[in-house]
Amino acid sequence: MSGLMIPHDAFVFIGDGRKALFLRNEGNPAEPSLKTEEVFADENPPTREQGTERPGRVSKPTGQRAAVEPTDWHDIEEHRFARRVAVALEQLVRERDVKAIIVVAPPRALADLRDAFHADVKARIVAELPKDLTRLPVEEITEHLAAEY
Known about the structure:
Order of helices and strands: EEEHEEHEHHEH
Mean pLDDT: 83
Number of strands: 7
Strand order of the largest sheet: 3-2-1-6-7
CATH class: Alpha Beta
Helix content: 25-40%
Structural class: alpha/beta
Low-confidence stretches: none
Shape: elongated
CATH topology: Nucleotidyltransferase, domain 5
CATH architecture: 2-Layer Sandwich
Distance between the termini: 11 Å
């Protein structure tokens, strides 16, 4: 079976803007056995349930009025969540002396995470996959990763 080689004791970060899993490979690179170390879930209802006020209006020098873009509270919370889990991963790296990390997240969340990861975390990332696997059970995540590359 060719696929992504996950070193023994490597951590696999699976996340999106609302959920993150920290998994650790208890197996070897040829036969990974991912075990859940930590789970983060964020309550982030849609913007329509978070914002209560109508978008503002602004007057232009010409006397015309224009609407202001409404605030996307849901989007803002997804960015905050990425920063929170990045800090948690940094803490894990320091406490457990993690040597290798694989990051799996949808492209937009991956971009947020790249911005939020500390240099110590970035130095340990051995692979990044732009996929959303957060809704899958750990066994299926293992199969997907083993089939990659």
